[in-house]
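Q: How do we represent a protein-ligand complex in a form that can be generated token by token?
A: Start from the inputs.
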Amino acid sequence: MPGFDCHLFVCCNRREPGHPRGCCDPEATGALKAALKEALKKAKVPGLARVNEAGCLDQCEYGPTVVIYPQQIWYGQVTLADVPRIVEETIVGGKILSDLKIPDECLNTKGKVPWRRGDAT
Ligand code: FES
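Then emit the structure tokens for the protein with FE2/S2 (inorganic) cluster bound:
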């Protein structure tokens, strides 16, 4: 049986309101994970892709965060409206969405390097 071609890890971490780092799923709905799963089911994805719930991915300041492995594509400030593009353009089409990509120089800085979605990468 073939292995997965990619995993989409979706941060579903929840912290108490007012936490200085915030969190990716403050209402604990798992809505982003569920939407990605549903969209993947409907898409004609080449190979095998799987959505996995993740705890904190340590990019909280840029969340909600999704990381795609093994391609190592980090997306930040992801909304439900982004789900179709992530599936169709990135997972099916292989295109990195520059408006959602957290730049490498921001990763693991605990937000010390400012970034907002749509900033040039
Ligand atoms: S809470 Fe989502 S990356 Fe930390």
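The chain has one domain: 6-106. The CA atoms of residues 6 and 72 lie 10 Å apart.
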